[in-house]
Each structure stands twice: as C-alpha cells, then as structure tokens.
Amino acid sequence: MPGTTSIWQDTHSIAPRPALAEHLTTDVCVVGAGIAGLSVAYTLAKAGKRVVVLDLAQIGSGESGHTTAHLANELDDQYAQLEKARGVASTRLTAEAHSAAIDVIEGIVRAEGIDCDFTRLDGYLFLGGDDTREVLEAELAAAHRAGLTEVELVERLPIRGDEEGPALRFPRQGRFHILKYLDGLARAIESSGGRIHGNTTVRSIAGGSPAVVTTDAELTVRASDVVVCTNSPISDMFITHVKQFPYRTFVVGLRVPKGSVPDALYWDTLDPYHYVRLQPMDATHDALLVGGEDHKTAHDDDAGERFDCLEDWAREHFPVGASSVSPVVYRWSGQVLETHDYLAFIGRNPDGAEHVWLATGDSGMGMTHGTIAGILLPALITKGTHRWTQLFDPKRVTLHSTELLEMAKENADVALQFRAYVTPGQVGDVADIPAGEGRVVRRGPHKIAAYRDAAGTVHECSAVCTHMACIVDWNTAEKSWDCPCHGSRFDPLGKVIGGPATADLKRITSNE
Question: Using CA atoms in the order 46, 51, 55, 60, what is the torsion angle rounded to 10 degrees?
C-alpha cells in the first residue's frame, strides 16, 4: 500500500538550507518558502533588493509540496460563480491575473533554465454527477465575458468512454514539477544575493519602520518590509481567518502506460470536484494524478475511504484498467484554504501592521495565486500600486448574499468545535492507542493529545490548539494533529508544522 509521500517529494529533493544563526537587517524578509514566498523573493531579488527568506522547515516542505501543480486560468469555483459574487470587471481582472501567472512561470523557466517538466497543454472542464449541458454553457459565456474568448465547447473529451462529453476546452494551460521549479527559483534568488534559511520558526512579526521578525531562538530580522507567505497567515491572527476555511484534499497517483491518457488537465463540475493530470514517471509510464474528495480539516478521519473513492472514479473515467494488481503508486493529501469569495488574499496585512504584507487563501489555485503574489506584492512594495490591488485586497468583504451566508455557516461551524471541551475522549485510556497512532484522551477537565510511538512510548501534549484554543484531532493518513477551526497542524509530538499557530502544543510531563 502506498504511503502518503507526494510524487514530488519522492522524485526530487532540494538541498536543505541552514537555520538562521544571527541577527540580520535587510530590505525584505519573506516568511515561507513555498511558491508564493519564493515567487515574491525572486522578483524582489532580481530587482536588486536584499532579500532574506525564512521557513519553518525547508523549501517546498509545506502545502506547495502537496499540490498536484495544475497551472490554470480556469477557476476551481468557476467564472459564472465569481461573476455573481463580484461582477464582470472582477472576472476580467481575475482571468488576466491567472493567465499572467502561467506566462510568468514559463518566462522564469526559460530565463533560469529550470528543468521542471513545464508543458503547455489544454484543460477540459466536463460534467459531473447530474449536472447538465447548461452548466457548461453558463460557464462558457462567463469565461468569454472574462476575456477568455479562446475557450470553446467541444462534444467529446480526448479520453476513452462514450459518456465523456460535452466539455469546455481551455487552451494554453500548464503543468510542471513543483519542487524542481522551487529548487530553480531558490538557486536564482541566492545567485542574486538573497539568503534562504530553513528550520527557522518565526514566533512573532511586528509592523513598523523597520518591521521586525522574531524567531523562537530570539533572533531577529529587521526589514523595511515583511511578506508573510505561510499558506495560513501567522501575521494576522483573526481578521483573515473568519473569511477563509481549511479543507483537506486527497490525491492518488496511478501508474498508466505512456500514451494511454492524452496529456491534458481535466476537471469536472462536481462539488467537491475532481482534478486530473499526468506527470512523467519513466520511459514507459506516467503517473495519472487524480485529486478530490475534499472535507473540512479534522472533521473526518477516513482518508482510506476517500483514496479508494478516487481510484474507483479514475477507473470509471480513464483507461486505468481493472488489473488485479493495483496501479496506485502514490496517495497523499494537502490542505486548501477556501476564501469566502473564491479569490486569494494578497496585499497589506489587514490589521494595519505597517510594512507587513501577506498572501493566503489559495482557494485551490495555489500555483497561480502564489505566482500572482510574486507579481502583485513586489509592485505594491516598490511602486505602491497595481491594477489588481483591490481585486485581492485582504481587507475586502464581498457583500453578495450567497458568500455572506457561506461565511456565516463556516464560522458557525468553528463555534461548534468548542463542544469538544465537554465530550468524552476518543479512547478511555492511553493503553488503547495502537503503536504509531494518536488519540485524544480526556483526563479530568483536560483534553490530552496522546501519541504512542513505534517503540510503545506514549507522548502527551495538551490537545488545545495554540492559535485560538480549539481541540485538535488526529489525522491518521498524515500522522499529525490537525485543528478543525483554522487548520493549524502539529506533528505527533506536538511541534507546529503549519499555521496559523506559531507555538507548539504544550507538552505534558509525568508529574502534570
């Protein structure tokens, strides 16, 4: 059975960067070494700015390393939906921004000579479930109004299956190997004088002139500007989090013979939708990457069932075959932050912190939204303005009734999570926890996150998330403690591995 390592992590490693070991003063400090952070750092370093990048772990070790790396100007939530929420002017800017992001990636790949399997190819949106042709016709009209006039309705998909069609064809989409791309960006940043430090935990970010980033080792980076690209922001602990919501999304990679599946991007209209692409593996086979089956973070722990559903769906729609030997070679999941109005938050920190900027809310479009951050934020820092400023403004609240209702529902769900303080534990005693697994245990008035390692030793932490005090839950597939409220994640021993939390779960010793 495959583990939960992504195809990118399995097929490419990036040399680790050393931890920050001294106080620094610089022009720009970027927090986070995923696609948004490195895209921002690359643009600024190329413009002659002194840049320092800090990451909790290493380059691409966060959600960028768990993407399926689609490069698309079609939105996950579709243009028809965005148009209802924000109008045609916004959809036109959105299409412009995502198209520009693909162009920028292609330009960087060529300029820096990055061998990352970058390819231009078609994308196909096809019907799922009981959706009808009218759904595609409405999306076609909205895409044309957004300026994507080359999008066309086709009667057939280029894959096996009499049922496959109609579909919308989106030309000049793209795909690439995300870690190879990030590796190339990092090298280009460093060749331009930038510094990248891994294994550096940022504990606080204070706005000002200069803005100050402080690490858990009490080291500081003083910068004219700080850019926070940590997937979920650690610079704004409340405002943004009531407008975006964490979801786990699941991926299987199936081994298929080269040429058996036409090389394209594929998405269906279901909610949650499926997303599919190929990635070259070797001389004779490709990996068919099939994603979907999303659920709210830490609301279910049934990854095995969701992986099986993805495999079954792939067999129905693609020429995978029904071999008695499973072709599944990869299984993993990632975290997506869905915003209340379908677009990322990229701009000034919404709490008003001076010279602090953020990029978050990927809304399933992390590769292009992250690259948009690399276009927009350097322009705001150096010039003070850009035509996309209002579109992605983190302070915005879209007043369309559907989006307001959805935001209310999501935040009501957050409030419901505090019921966990009065519910029983998942097991009655730590002795009932299998080796290599974690469970929440009640001990008097307290909830304990207890993990039994392979040797049988039990490690205990408070189950209270250090962001806003929700009770974490165990993620069996990824072996982590996840927060159901805002998506903070911690390793089995309670060390923070993903924000918005910046502090580890409190360790519990035998005398507590």
Answer: 0
Residue in the block written with tokens 């042709």: 133
CB atoms within 10 A of CB 328: 21
Segment (H or E) for 143: helix 133-145
Distance between CA atoms of residues 65 and 232, nearest Å: 15
Contact yes or no for 161/313 (Cβ under 8 A):
no
Q: Coil, helix or strand for 291?
A: strand
Within 355-400, residue ranges assigned H as helices are 366-383
* Of 436, 485, 493, 431, nearest in space to 461 by CA: 493
Question: Is 238 in contact with 270 (CB distance < 8 Å)?
Answer: no
Asked if 482 and 438 count as a contact pair (C-beta separation under 8 A), the reply is no
User: Residue 399, exposed/middle/buried by CB under 10 A (0-12, 13-18, 19+)?
Assistant: exposed
Gyration radius of the chain's alpha carbons: 22
> How far from the centroid of its chain's Cα atoms is residue 10's Cα?
18
- Structural domains present in the chain: 8-67+179-242+342-408 (3.50.50.60), 117-171+244-339 (3.30.9.10), 422-498 (2.102.10.10)
CA angle 97, 101, 102 (to 5 degrees): 125
Q: Residue 237 pLDDT > 80, yes or no? A: no
To 10 degrees, what angle do helices 88-112 and 79-86 make?
130
Other CB atoms within a 10 A radius of the CB of residue 175 amount to 26
Whether the upstream peptide bond of residue 492 has omega within 30° of 0, thus cis, is: no
Please give the backbone phi and psi of residue 186, each rounded to the nearest 5 degrees, phi first.
-60, -45
The letter for the amino acid at 119 is: T
Label the pairing between strands 437-443 and 356-360.
unpaired
Residue 444: CB partners within 8 Å, gap ≥ 6? none
β partners of residue 116: none
What tokens appear for 188 in the block? 């280009």
Residues contacting 10, CB < 8 A, separation 6+ = 330
- Model pTM above 0.85: yes
Which residue, chain included where needed, has tokens 């030309």?
171
Give residue 440's Cα distance to chain centre.
26
Which residues fall within 8 angstroms of residue 116, CB to CB, at 6 or more apart? 109, 176, 177, 178, 180, 181, 184
Residue 511 has pLDDT above 50, yes or no: no
Contact between 460 and 478 under an 8 Å Cβ cutoff? The reply is no
Q: How many CB atoms lie within 10 A of CB 345?
A: 28
The Cα-based distances of 285 to 110, 267, 384 in angstroms read 26, 22, 48
Q: How far apart are CA 368 and CA 192, in angstroms?
A: 24
Q: Is the pLDDT of residue 62 over 70?
A: yes
Confidence of residue 324 (pLDDT cuts 50, 70, 90): very low
Cα angle value 144/149/151 (rounded, 5°): 90
Name which of 226, 279, 230 is nearest 252 in CA terms. Answer: 279
Q: Residue 401: is its pLDDT beyond 60?
A: no
